[in-house]
Design goal:
The chain is α+β, with helices and mostly antiparallel strands. It has 18 helices and twelve strands. Helix 6 runs parallel beside helix 18, helix 7 runs antiparallel to helix 11 and helix 11 packs across helix 18. The protein is globular, with a radius of gyration of 22 Å.
Length: about 450
Protein backbone atom coordinates (compact mmCIF):
# COMPACT_ATOMS: atom_id res chain seq x y z
CA UNK A 1 0.00 0.00 0.00
CA UNK A 2 1.12 3.59 -0.47
CA UNK A 3 2.74 5.72 -3.15
CA UNK A 4 6.30 5.48 -4.53
CA UNK A 5 8.95 7.07 -2.28
CA UNK A 6 6.52 8.55 0.25
CA UNK A 7 4.57 5.36 0.94
CA UNK A 8 1.60 5.98 3.25
CA UNK A 9 3.00 9.14 4.83
CA UNK A 10 0.21 11.45 3.62
CA UNK A 11 -2.88 9.54 4.88
CA UNK A 12 -1.04 8.65 8.08
CA UNK A 13 -0.11 12.27 8.76
CA UNK A 14 -3.62 13.46 7.88
CA UNK A 15 -5.34 11.19 10.44
CA UNK A 16 -3.15 8.51 12.05
CA UNK A 17 -6.07 7.21 14.15
CA UNK A 18 -8.39 6.44 11.26
CA UNK A 19 -5.53 5.28 9.03
CA UNK A 20 -4.25 2.70 11.53
CA UNK A 21 -7.76 1.53 12.40
CA UNK A 22 -8.55 1.00 8.70
CA UNK A 23 -5.26 -0.87 8.23
CA UNK A 24 -6.00 -3.14 11.18
CA UNK A 25 -9.43 -4.01 9.80
CA UNK A 26 -7.96 -4.72 6.38
CA UNK A 27 -4.64 -6.43 7.20
CA UNK A 28 -5.11 -7.96 10.66
CA UNK A 29 -2.94 -8.03 13.75
CA UNK A 30 0.44 -7.43 12.12
CA UNK A 31 1.28 -5.46 8.99
CA UNK A 32 3.92 -3.17 7.52
CA UNK A 33 3.34 0.53 6.82
CA UNK A 34 5.67 1.95 4.14
CA UNK A 35 7.13 5.31 5.17
CA UNK A 36 9.92 7.38 3.59
CA UNK A 37 12.08 7.76 6.74
CA UNK A 38 11.91 4.40 8.50
CA UNK A 39 10.18 1.03 8.10
CA UNK A 40 7.22 0.65 10.44
CA UNK A 41 5.53 -2.58 11.53
CA UNK A 42 2.26 -2.48 13.49
CA UNK A 43 1.55 -5.41 15.80
CA UNK A 44 -1.74 -5.05 17.65
CA UNK A 45 -2.48 -8.40 19.26
CA UNK A 46 -1.66 -8.27 23.02
CA UNK A 47 0.50 -11.41 22.72
CA UNK A 48 2.58 -9.78 19.97
CA UNK A 49 2.77 -6.55 21.96
CA UNK A 50 4.23 -8.45 24.89
CA UNK A 51 7.06 -9.81 22.72
CA UNK A 52 8.54 -6.39 21.96
CA UNK A 53 7.23 -4.21 24.80
CA UNK A 54 8.28 -6.59 27.57
CA UNK A 55 11.54 -7.70 25.99
CA UNK A 56 14.42 -7.75 28.50
CA UNK A 57 17.10 -9.10 26.16
CA UNK A 58 17.73 -5.75 24.45
CA UNK A 59 16.30 -6.98 21.16
CA UNK A 60 14.14 -3.83 21.18
CA UNK A 61 14.91 -0.30 22.33
CA UNK A 62 12.75 2.66 23.34
CA UNK A 63 15.18 5.24 22.02
CA UNK A 64 16.73 4.07 18.76
CA UNK A 65 20.21 2.58 18.29
CA UNK A 66 22.10 3.84 21.34
CA UNK A 67 22.36 0.67 23.38
CA UNK A 68 25.78 -0.64 22.45
CA UNK A 69 28.27 -0.34 25.30
CA UNK A 70 30.17 2.51 23.70
CA UNK A 71 27.03 4.38 22.74
CA UNK A 72 25.46 3.89 26.17
CA UNK A 73 28.63 5.15 27.82
CA UNK A 74 28.70 8.19 25.54
CA UNK A 75 25.01 8.95 26.04
CA UNK A 76 25.27 8.58 29.80
CA UNK A 77 28.28 10.89 29.95
CA UNK A 78 26.56 13.56 27.86
CA UNK A 79 23.29 13.23 29.74
CA UNK A 80 19.86 11.84 28.96
CA UNK A 81 16.58 11.08 30.74
CA UNK A 82 15.60 7.64 31.94
CA UNK A 83 13.41 7.02 28.87
CA UNK A 84 16.48 7.06 26.63
CA UNK A 85 18.38 4.44 28.62
CA UNK A 86 18.33 0.68 28.24
CA UNK A 87 19.61 -2.38 30.05
CA UNK A 88 21.55 -1.93 33.28
CA UNK A 89 21.74 1.85 32.88
CA UNK A 90 17.94 1.96 32.73
CA UNK A 91 17.54 -0.29 35.76
CA UNK A 92 20.03 1.77 37.78
CA UNK A 93 18.34 5.08 36.96
CA UNK A 94 14.84 3.73 37.65
CA UNK A 95 16.03 2.37 40.99
CA UNK A 96 17.19 5.87 41.96
CA UNK A 97 13.95 7.55 40.88
CA UNK A 98 11.34 5.00 41.95
CA UNK A 99 11.22 6.07 45.62
CA UNK A 100 9.54 9.31 44.49
CA UNK A 101 6.65 7.39 42.92
CA UNK A 102 6.00 4.70 45.52
CA UNK A 103 2.96 4.62 47.84
CA UNK A 104 4.99 5.72 50.84
CA UNK A 105 6.22 8.91 49.22
CA UNK A 106 2.92 9.68 47.50
CA UNK A 107 1.32 9.66 50.94
CA UNK A 108 3.92 12.24 52.04
CA UNK A 109 3.22 14.63 49.14
CA UNK A 110 -0.53 14.01 49.03
CA UNK A 111 -1.28 17.18 50.98
CA UNK A 112 0.69 19.23 48.46
CA UNK A 113 -1.45 17.97 45.60
CA UNK A 114 -4.64 18.65 47.53
CA UNK A 115 -3.48 22.13 48.56
CA UNK A 116 -2.78 23.26 45.00
CA UNK A 117 -5.75 21.45 43.46
CA UNK A 118 -8.08 23.13 45.94
CA UNK A 119 -6.59 26.59 45.46
CA UNK A 120 -6.60 26.40 41.67
CA UNK A 121 -10.02 24.78 41.28
CA UNK A 122 -11.53 27.37 43.63
CA UNK A 123 -10.53 29.99 41.05
CA UNK A 124 -13.33 28.66 38.84
CA UNK A 125 -15.72 30.50 41.14
CA UNK A 126 -15.15 33.62 39.03
CA UNK A 127 -16.89 31.98 36.04
CA UNK A 128 -19.23 29.59 37.83
CA UNK A 129 -22.86 30.43 37.14
CA UNK A 130 -22.05 33.19 34.64
CA UNK A 131 -22.76 31.08 31.54
CA UNK A 132 -19.27 31.92 30.28
CA UNK A 133 -17.81 29.00 28.34
CA UNK A 134 -14.35 27.78 29.34
CA UNK A 135 -11.95 25.33 27.74
CA UNK A 136 -11.44 22.61 30.37
CA UNK A 137 -8.40 21.27 28.52
CA UNK A 138 -6.75 24.69 28.76
CA UNK A 139 -7.72 25.00 32.45
CA UNK A 140 -6.29 21.67 33.54
CA UNK A 141 -2.59 22.59 33.06
CA UNK A 142 -3.14 25.57 35.38
CA UNK A 143 -4.15 23.07 38.06
CA UNK A 144 -2.02 20.00 37.39
CA UNK A 145 1.34 21.59 36.49
CA UNK A 146 1.78 23.77 39.61
CA UNK A 147 0.63 20.88 41.81
CA UNK A 148 3.13 18.53 40.19
CA UNK A 149 5.99 21.02 40.51
CA UNK A 150 5.18 21.68 44.16
CA UNK A 151 4.92 17.99 45.04
CA UNK A 152 7.94 16.80 43.05
CA UNK A 153 10.32 19.77 43.36
CA UNK A 154 8.97 21.81 46.32
CA UNK A 155 8.67 24.69 43.85
CA UNK A 156 5.73 27.07 43.59
CA UNK A 157 5.30 28.46 40.07
CA UNK A 158 3.80 31.83 39.25
CA UNK A 159 0.96 31.98 36.72
CA UNK A 160 3.44 33.28 34.13
CA UNK A 161 5.85 30.40 34.79
CA UNK A 162 2.99 27.91 34.51
CA UNK A 163 2.02 29.36 31.13
CA UNK A 164 5.55 29.20 29.73
CA UNK A 165 6.21 25.72 31.11
CA UNK A 166 2.98 24.40 29.63
CA UNK A 167 3.59 26.04 26.25
CA UNK A 168 7.15 24.73 26.08
CA UNK A 169 6.11 21.20 27.06
CA UNK A 170 3.31 21.06 24.51
CA UNK A 171 5.60 22.47 21.84
CA UNK A 172 8.22 19.81 22.51
CA UNK A 173 5.52 17.14 22.33
CA UNK A 174 4.36 18.51 18.98
CA UNK A 175 7.95 18.59 17.71
CA UNK A 176 8.40 14.90 18.52
CA UNK A 177 5.00 14.10 17.03
CA UNK A 178 5.87 15.90 13.80
CA UNK A 179 9.00 13.76 13.52
CA UNK A 180 7.00 10.57 13.94
CA UNK A 181 4.05 11.33 11.69
CA UNK A 182 5.11 14.31 9.58
CA UNK A 183 2.45 16.27 11.45
CA UNK A 184 2.36 20.06 11.77
CA UNK A 185 5.47 21.13 13.71
CA UNK A 186 5.34 23.70 16.53
CA UNK A 187 5.97 27.37 15.87
CA UNK A 188 9.63 28.26 16.53
CA UNK A 189 9.42 31.92 15.57
CA UNK A 190 8.70 34.51 18.30
CA UNK A 191 5.43 35.87 16.92
CA UNK A 192 3.23 37.84 19.33
CA UNK A 193 0.28 35.91 20.71
CA UNK A 194 1.39 32.60 19.19
CA UNK A 195 2.44 29.39 20.91
CA UNK A 196 6.21 29.46 20.61
CA UNK A 197 8.75 26.73 21.34
CA UNK A 198 11.79 29.00 21.37
CA UNK A 199 10.62 31.70 23.79
CA UNK A 200 8.76 29.39 26.14
CA UNK A 201 11.60 26.87 26.05
CA UNK A 202 14.05 29.57 27.18
CA UNK A 203 11.69 30.58 29.99
CA UNK A 204 11.28 26.96 31.09
CA UNK A 205 15.04 26.33 31.11
CA UNK A 206 15.54 29.48 33.17
CA UNK A 207 12.97 28.22 35.67
CA UNK A 208 14.65 24.81 35.89
CA UNK A 209 18.14 26.30 36.15
CA UNK A 210 16.92 28.65 38.87
CA UNK A 211 15.45 25.71 40.81
CA UNK A 212 18.69 23.76 40.62
CA UNK A 213 20.93 26.71 41.47
CA UNK A 214 18.74 27.73 44.41
CA UNK A 215 18.78 24.20 45.81
CA UNK A 216 22.54 23.89 45.43
CA UNK A 217 23.05 27.24 47.16
CA UNK A 218 20.50 26.51 49.89
CA UNK A 219 20.24 22.74 50.46
CA UNK A 220 17.07 21.40 52.09
CA UNK A 221 15.93 18.15 53.64
CA UNK A 222 12.85 18.04 51.41
CA UNK A 223 11.99 14.52 50.27
CA UNK A 224 11.54 15.57 46.66
CA UNK A 225 12.73 14.53 43.23
CA UNK A 226 15.16 17.43 42.97
CA UNK A 227 17.11 16.28 46.02
CA UNK A 228 17.11 12.71 44.71
CA UNK A 229 18.56 13.89 41.39
CA UNK A 230 21.19 16.11 43.00
CA UNK A 231 22.20 13.32 45.38
CA UNK A 232 22.20 10.50 42.83
CA UNK A 233 25.46 8.85 41.81
CA UNK A 234 26.45 6.90 38.71
CA UNK A 235 28.35 3.61 38.95
CA UNK A 236 31.79 5.27 39.30
CA UNK A 237 30.38 7.28 42.20
CA UNK A 238 30.11 10.52 40.25
CA UNK A 239 27.02 12.74 40.57
CA UNK A 240 24.65 13.05 37.63
CA UNK A 241 25.81 15.60 35.10
CA UNK A 242 24.03 18.94 34.93
CA UNK A 243 22.54 17.86 31.61
CA UNK A 244 21.28 14.64 33.22
CA UNK A 245 19.60 16.61 35.99
CA UNK A 246 17.99 19.07 33.57
CA UNK A 247 16.87 16.31 31.19
CA UNK A 248 15.30 14.28 34.01
CA UNK A 249 13.45 17.36 35.25
CA UNK A 250 12.22 18.14 31.72
CA UNK A 251 11.22 14.52 31.22
CA UNK A 252 9.40 14.42 34.56
CA UNK A 253 7.48 17.58 33.73
CA UNK A 254 6.37 16.25 30.34
CA UNK A 255 5.53 12.76 31.56
CA UNK A 256 4.26 13.75 34.99
CA UNK A 257 1.65 16.34 34.15
CA UNK A 258 1.06 16.63 30.38
CA UNK A 259 -0.16 13.05 30.07
CA UNK A 260 -2.55 13.61 33.00
CA UNK A 261 -3.90 16.76 31.35
CA UNK A 262 -4.58 14.86 28.13
CA UNK A 263 -6.14 11.85 29.86
CA UNK A 264 -8.28 13.98 32.18
CA UNK A 265 -9.43 16.06 29.21
CA UNK A 266 -10.73 12.91 27.53
CA UNK A 267 -12.22 11.61 30.77
CA UNK A 268 -14.24 14.79 31.27
CA UNK A 269 -15.16 15.07 27.58
CA UNK A 270 -16.67 11.57 27.63
CA UNK A 271 -17.92 11.33 31.22
CA UNK A 272 -19.95 14.54 30.94
CA UNK A 273 -21.95 12.99 28.08
CA UNK A 274 -23.21 10.18 30.32
CA UNK A 275 -25.46 11.38 33.18
CA UNK A 276 -25.87 7.86 34.54
CA UNK A 277 -22.11 7.50 35.08
CA UNK A 278 -21.90 11.01 36.52
CA UNK A 279 -24.63 10.33 39.08
CA UNK A 280 -22.75 7.28 40.29
CA UNK A 281 -19.60 9.40 40.61
CA UNK A 282 -21.48 12.09 42.56
CA UNK A 283 -22.76 9.43 44.99
CA UNK A 284 -19.27 8.00 45.47
CA UNK A 285 -17.71 11.41 46.08
CA UNK A 286 -20.52 12.33 48.51
CA UNK A 287 -19.21 9.58 50.81
CA UNK A 288 -16.25 11.88 51.56
CA UNK A 289 -18.72 14.20 53.33
CA UNK A 290 -17.15 17.26 51.73
CA UNK A 291 -13.66 16.48 53.09
CA UNK A 292 -10.62 16.67 50.88
CA UNK A 293 -9.49 13.20 49.72
CA UNK A 294 -6.51 11.48 51.32
CA UNK A 295 -4.49 8.41 50.30
CA UNK A 296 -6.73 6.35 52.60
CA UNK A 297 -9.73 7.46 50.52
CA UNK A 298 -8.38 6.16 47.19
CA UNK A 299 -9.76 2.63 47.66
CA UNK A 300 -13.13 4.26 48.42
CA UNK A 301 -13.15 5.91 44.96
CA UNK A 302 -13.08 2.90 42.60
CA UNK A 303 -15.70 4.38 40.27
CA UNK A 304 -13.61 7.54 39.86
CA UNK A 305 -10.63 5.37 38.93
CA UNK A 306 -12.75 3.36 36.48
CA UNK A 307 -14.02 6.59 34.89
CA UNK A 308 -10.42 7.72 34.41
CA UNK A 309 -9.27 4.39 32.96
CA UNK A 310 -12.18 4.38 30.51
CA UNK A 311 -11.25 7.90 29.46
CA UNK A 312 -7.68 6.73 28.86
CA UNK A 313 -8.91 3.73 26.88
CA UNK A 314 -10.90 5.77 24.40
CA UNK A 315 -8.29 8.52 24.30
CA UNK A 316 -5.76 6.12 22.81
CA UNK A 317 -2.49 6.94 21.08
CA UNK A 318 -1.61 6.22 17.45
CA UNK A 319 1.51 4.20 18.25
CA UNK A 320 3.68 3.06 21.15
CA UNK A 321 6.96 2.25 19.38
CA UNK A 322 10.17 0.31 19.94
CA UNK A 323 13.19 -0.05 17.63
CA UNK A 324 14.37 -3.53 16.71
CA UNK A 325 18.05 -3.63 17.65
CA UNK A 326 18.82 -6.80 15.72
CA UNK A 327 17.34 -8.93 12.98
CA UNK A 328 14.53 -10.80 14.69
CA UNK A 329 11.08 -12.29 14.17
CA UNK A 330 7.61 -11.30 15.36
CA UNK A 331 4.50 -13.37 14.82
CA UNK A 332 6.36 -15.48 12.27
CA UNK A 333 7.40 -12.45 10.21
CA UNK A 334 11.02 -11.29 9.82
CA UNK A 335 11.82 -7.93 11.46
CA UNK A 336 15.01 -6.34 10.07
CA UNK A 337 17.30 -4.45 12.40
CA UNK A 338 16.25 -0.84 13.13
CA UNK A 339 12.65 -1.45 12.08
CA UNK A 340 10.21 0.59 14.14
CA UNK A 341 7.80 -1.90 15.73
CA UNK A 342 4.71 -0.49 17.43
CA UNK A 343 1.26 -1.15 18.78
CA UNK A 344 -1.58 1.30 18.28
CA UNK A 345 -3.36 1.97 21.57
CA UNK A 346 -6.18 3.56 19.60
CA UNK A 347 -6.68 0.26 17.76
CA UNK A 348 -6.06 -2.18 20.61
CA UNK A 349 -8.28 -0.22 23.01
CA UNK A 350 -11.19 -0.46 20.57
CA UNK A 351 -10.81 -4.08 19.54
CA UNK A 352 -14.22 -5.82 19.95
CA UNK A 353 -12.42 -9.05 20.83
CA UNK A 354 -11.33 -7.52 24.13
CA UNK A 355 -13.91 -4.77 24.70
CA UNK A 356 -17.14 -6.19 23.25
CA UNK A 357 -19.49 -5.07 20.52
CA UNK A 358 -19.88 -1.61 22.07
CA UNK A 359 -16.15 -0.97 22.26
CA UNK A 360 -16.56 2.60 21.03
CA UNK A 361 -18.97 3.51 23.86
CA UNK A 362 -17.73 5.12 27.08
CA UNK A 363 -18.47 2.57 29.81
CA UNK A 364 -16.50 2.63 33.10
CA UNK A 365 -17.85 -0.86 33.86
CA UNK A 366 -15.10 -2.05 31.51
CA UNK A 367 -12.77 -1.48 34.47
CA UNK A 368 -15.15 -1.63 37.44
CA UNK A 369 -16.45 -5.12 36.61
CA UNK A 370 -13.63 -7.45 37.66
CA UNK A 371 -15.03 -10.31 35.57
CA UNK A 372 -14.57 -8.21 32.43
CA UNK A 373 -11.07 -7.23 33.50
CA UNK A 374 -10.08 -10.86 34.11
CA UNK A 375 -11.59 -12.03 30.81
CA UNK A 376 -9.39 -9.92 28.53
CA UNK A 377 -5.63 -10.23 27.87
CA UNK A 378 -3.41 -8.21 30.20
CA UNK A 379 -2.01 -5.97 27.44
CA UNK A 380 -5.40 -5.25 25.92
CA UNK A 381 -5.02 -2.07 28.01
CA UNK A 382 -1.70 -0.27 27.59
CA UNK A 383 -2.23 3.24 28.90
CA UNK A 384 0.92 3.09 31.04
CA UNK A 385 3.07 1.00 28.72
CA UNK A 386 4.66 -2.29 29.68
CA UNK A 387 7.98 -3.94 30.34
CA UNK A 388 11.22 -2.18 31.33
CA UNK A 389 9.79 1.22 30.34
CA UNK A 390 6.48 0.83 32.17
CA UNK A 391 5.52 4.27 33.49
CA UNK A 392 7.02 4.86 36.94
CA UNK A 393 4.34 7.41 37.74
CA UNK A 394 1.32 5.09 37.38
CA UNK A 395 0.39 5.33 41.06
CA UNK A 396 0.76 9.10 41.03
CA UNK A 397 -1.40 9.36 37.90
CA UNK A 398 -4.27 7.49 39.55
CA UNK A 399 -3.96 9.53 42.74
CA UNK A 400 -4.03 12.80 40.79
CA UNK A 401 -6.99 11.69 38.66
CA UNK A 402 -9.07 10.53 41.62
CA UNK A 403 -8.22 13.67 43.61
CA UNK A 404 -9.10 15.90 40.66
CA UNK A 405 -12.46 14.25 40.01
CA UNK A 406 -13.35 14.38 43.71
CA UNK A 407 -12.25 18.00 44.17
CA UNK A 408 -13.97 19.26 41.00
CA UNK A 409 -17.31 17.53 41.53
CA UNK A 410 -17.51 18.35 45.23
CA UNK A 411 -17.73 21.99 44.13
CA UNK A 412 -19.15 22.19 40.62
CA UNK A 413 -21.27 20.72 37.90
CA UNK A 414 -19.82 20.91 34.40
CA UNK A 415 -21.92 21.15 31.24
CA UNK A 416 -20.57 20.49 27.74
CA UNK A 417 -21.56 22.66 24.80
CA UNK A 418 -24.76 21.10 23.37
CA UNK A 419 -24.07 18.83 20.41
CA UNK A 420 -20.30 18.95 20.81
CA UNK A 421 -18.29 15.77 20.29
CA UNK A 422 -14.56 15.21 21.05
CA UNK A 423 -12.06 14.38 18.33
CA UNK A 424 -8.46 13.19 18.63
CA UNK A 425 -5.53 15.55 18.10
CA UNK A 426 -2.08 13.99 17.96
CA UNK A 427 0.61 15.76 19.97
CA UNK A 428 2.53 12.71 21.23
CA UNK A 429 -0.15 12.54 23.90
CA UNK A 430 -3.60 12.44 22.35
CA UNK A 431 -5.39 15.70 23.16
CA UNK A 432 -8.96 16.73 22.41
CA UNK A 433 -8.92 18.73 19.20
CA UNK A 434 -9.86 22.33 19.92
CA UNK A 435 -10.23 21.68 23.65
CA UNK A 436 -13.25 20.78 25.81
CA UNK A 437 -15.86 23.61 25.80
CA UNK A 438 -18.01 23.71 28.94
CA UNK A 439 -19.87 25.95 31.35
CA UNK A 440 -19.57 25.67 35.12
CA UNK A 441 -22.13 25.96 37.90
CA UNK A 442 -21.65 25.68 41.66
CA UNK A 443 -23.03 22.77 43.64
Amino acid sequence: MGLPFIGSAIPMARNPYKFLQDCHRRYGDIYRVPLPIYPLVLANHPDLVSEFMEDTELKYSMSAPIQGRRMQKAVTSVGCPVQALEGQALRDRRKKLMPMFGKKHLAVVSDKFVEVFTDRIDRWLTVAGTGQEVNLQAELPKIVLPAFMYAMFSTKLSDDEVMHADTATRSVMRAIASGLFLATPPNVFPLPGKENLTVSGVHLMRTIRGMVQERRANPTNDADLLNILLGARNDPGNPLTEVDVYSEIMSAIGGGYETIVASMSWTLALLLQHPEHLERLYDEIAMLNGDMPTPDDLPKLPWARACFDEGQRLQGAPINPRYAMQDTELGGYPIPKYTLVASSLYVVHRDPRWWGENAEVYDPMQFFDQDRVNARPRLAFQAFGAGPHHCMGTGMAYMMAQYLLATIFQRYRLHLRPGWQPRQFFSLSTLVKGGVPATITRV
